Amino acid sequence: MPVSLSRGHVHTSEFVINTRSTYWVGFMAHDGFGHQPGPSDPPVYEYCLPDLGTSWSLSSHGRVVATGAGTPCGDWLGWFKAGNGTYVLDADVSRDGSSFNSRKPRLVVFEDGGLREATYRLGEPMLCTFGGLTTIGAGILIFSAISARNKKLDSEDRVSIIQS
């Protein structure tokens, strides 16, 4: 949802989570939050928000189920584990970040667990299967090449016998 990074409170409308997983909370902007925080030699360029002193809480049916606070790189506020249900997110920004409002910041919650964990669980067996099939395929190619070479040599031997 679009938000202001000025000091204040953000309250989301209810949203539904339908997959038990790990979720991340953060601020995003279409072109990112890159900025030069101050004069320095050589110039230093930051690719994230400065710490805005942000704290947040996640509630379900009026009961707080997760809390967190911002990080030194203020884009990512934290993570939580959740299952099926309806939730509301509240965030408090205690330091003024209004200079970033022109970048049209959004408060985001996204899943980062179920699919990733499933991929990791499947990754090793798939890698072993791929390795095994690659080995078998390479063996077939080598066998075909040797067979073709032997057939060619046999036909050349027959031609030389016939010519003699």
SSE inventory with pairings:
Elements: E1 8-11, E2 15-17, E3 21-28, E4 54-60, E5 63-69, E6 76-82, E7 85-93, E8 106-111, H1 114-163
Could you give a short description of this structure?
By secondary structure, the protein is α+β, with helices and mostly antiparallel strands. It is built from one helix and eight strands; from the N terminus they run E-E-E-E-E-E-E-E-H.
Largest sheet: 5 strands, antiparallel
Roughly what is the average pLDDT, rounded to an integer?
A: 84
- CATH class categorisation of one domain: Mainly Beta
- Weakly predicted, low-confidence segments: none
**What is the N-to-C succession of helices and strands?**
EEEEEEEEH
Q: What does the radius of gyration come to?
A: 30 Å
By helix and strand content, what is the structural category?
alpha+beta
Total strands: the figure is: 8
| Share of residues in helices | 25-40%
Tally of helical segments:
1
The end-to-end distance, rounded to whole angstroms, is 88 Å
Shape: elongated
Give me the CATH architecture of one domain, please: Sandwich
Share of β-strand residues: 25-35%
What is the CATH topology classification name of one domain? Jelly Rolls
